[in-house]
């Protein structure tokens, strides 16, 4: 039996977890949910959910992983008994499904990134004007229609999965840890740079205002849909319910202060999501787009290319933006493939590179239909994100909160010391409020599917 791998450094673990958390959820989704959900009023609800739900829940995944030093299937089996391996299996399936379409979307970002090197986005759109006029849609929408399916999408989905598989095949230290040490600081620096640039754009103020001015009325009128949306976003953005944090914590080896690590990771994820809004909204308003994005997979591509086509230096800002998102998506994809790979290594005794290649290959094939028709994106996303992920998170909450609370508190206290009443408070947060939120979100997800 070979020795199970571990992180080389504490920073390596934190960066890997931050790399997983920061992804399309922050950059592709967050600014829009916020803009549509009443600006900073939504932001407040979201922050509340991240703190009250995301923080206790990430700790639950951490203790399960560190205690068992196993992948989600092995971990749940060890803690809950044999039948829990099926629940663990749900985590693996969730990872499979989410990664299959996530890779296609990430491929679009690479495609748009490369477009920035060929010249201005304006020239690119001009070439699509006549087709656009005929169809009665913006040129950027015609472009998105062209690039989002077919050969382009297929090629970049292939490329993205190949890189993801390559990194995971190299292992925890030589692959993932090295990669995130470069990628995560790069994402941060690029976003700060872009936010500063965006600050100098004309009409930046109007963008900030749209983003940050609280409209409590929107929340009051739509709370029944907004609250679950904020809860779902809190889980998705922290990579919860996919087994990622279980798996990453299983490589910790020694006992550290998990609450500190959890807070650091949540701080970075939230900060980066917030920062992205400071880039996206000024860019829109500088380009005269005052009602950015109705939602939907293509919204950010359509409105961002239109904006980059209009503002000065747009193709540089554009390639930086699309490139940054692609890097963020890669560090997230790596974490999901690691979940599935760890399962095959731990439970089936397969060598790492074979496990990564085999599982990555199947995930890749599952994503191919999405490159033919985006209907598959909605189907897979609604199922994985709306149902599977919430179900997995709910089961974990039941296990940690109701079945093994003593073990969980003991494990959390390692590396911290006696938590006293705080440990009990943590368990009760998991037992009741989080459980209720997950049940409601799951109900709405199933109903809406
Ligand atoms: N936390 C990630 C995000 O916000 O984008 C969620 C995620 C999605 C992680 C897909 C990994 C992944 F492959
Ligand atoms: Na995120």
From TrEMBL:
Superkingdom: Archaea
Main location: membrane
Listed transmembrane segments: 12-31, 43-65, 86-110, 153-172, 179-199, 230-251, 263-285, 316-345, 357-377, 383-404, 425-446
Location(s) in or outside the cell: Membrane
GO CC, any one term: membrane
Topology in the lipid bilayer: Multi-pass membrane protein
Keywords: Membrane, Transmembrane, Transmembrane helix, Transport
One Pfam family recorded for the sequence: SNF
InterPro entries registered for this protein in UniProt: Na/ntran_symport, SNS_sf, YocR/YhdH-like
Name of the molecule in the record: Neurotransmitter:Na+ symporter, NSS family
């Amino acid at each position: 039996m070979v020795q199970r791998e571990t992180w080389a450094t504490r920073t390596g673990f934190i960066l890997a977890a931050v790399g997983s958390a920061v992804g399309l959820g922050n950059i592709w989704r967050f600014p829009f949910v916020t803009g549509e959900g009443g600006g900073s009023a939504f932001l407040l609800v979201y922050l509340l959910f991240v703190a009250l739900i995301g923080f206790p829940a990430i700790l639950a995944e951490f203790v399960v992983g560190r205690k068992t030093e196993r992948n989600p299937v092995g971990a749940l089996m060890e803690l809950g008994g044999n039948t829990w391996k099926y629940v663990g299996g749900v985590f693996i399936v969730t990872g499979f499904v989410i990664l299959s379409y996530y890779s296609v979307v990430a491929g679009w970002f690479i495609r748009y990134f490369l477009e920035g090197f060929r010249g201005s986005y304006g020239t690119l759109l001009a070439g699509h004007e006549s087709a656009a006029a005929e169809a009665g849609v913006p040129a950027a929408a015609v472009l998105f229609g062209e690039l989002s399916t077919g050969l382009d999408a297929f090629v970049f989905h292939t490329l993205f999965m190949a890189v993801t598989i390559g990194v995971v095949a190299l292992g925890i230290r030589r692959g993932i840890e090295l990669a995130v040490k470069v990628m995560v600081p790069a994402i941060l620096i690029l976003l700060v740079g872009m936010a500063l640039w965006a600050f100098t754009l004309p009409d930046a103020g109007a963008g900030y205002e749209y983003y940050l001015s609280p409209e409590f009325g929107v929340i009051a009128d739509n709370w029944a849909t907004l609250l679950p949306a904020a809860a779902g976003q809190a889980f998705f953005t922290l990579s919860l319910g996919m087994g990622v944090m279980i798996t990453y914590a299983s490589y910790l080896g020694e006992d550290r202060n998990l609450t500190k690590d959890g807070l650091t990771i949540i701080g970075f994820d939230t900060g980066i999501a917030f920062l992205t809004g400071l880039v996206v909204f000024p860019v829109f308003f500088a380009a005269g787009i005052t009602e950015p994005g109705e939602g939907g997979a293509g919204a950010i591509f359509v409105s961002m290319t239109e904006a980059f086509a209009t503002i000065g230096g747009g193709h540089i800002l554009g390639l930086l933006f699309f490139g940054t998102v692609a890097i963020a998506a890669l560090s997230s994809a790596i974490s999901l493939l690691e979940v599935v790979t760890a399962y095959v290594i731990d439970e089936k005794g397969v060598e790492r590179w074979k496990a990564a290649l085999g599982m990555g290959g199947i995930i890749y094939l599952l994503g191919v239909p999405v490159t033919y028709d985006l209907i598959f994106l909605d189907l897979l996303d609604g199922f994985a994100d709306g149902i599977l992920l919430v179900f997995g998170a709910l089961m974990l909450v039941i296990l940690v909160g109701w079945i093994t609370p003593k073990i969980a508190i003991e494990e959390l206290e390692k590396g911290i010391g006696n938590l006293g009443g705080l440990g009990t408070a943590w368990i009760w947060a998991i037992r009741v409020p989080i459980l209720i939120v997950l049940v409601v979100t799951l109900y709405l997800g199933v109903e809406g599917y």
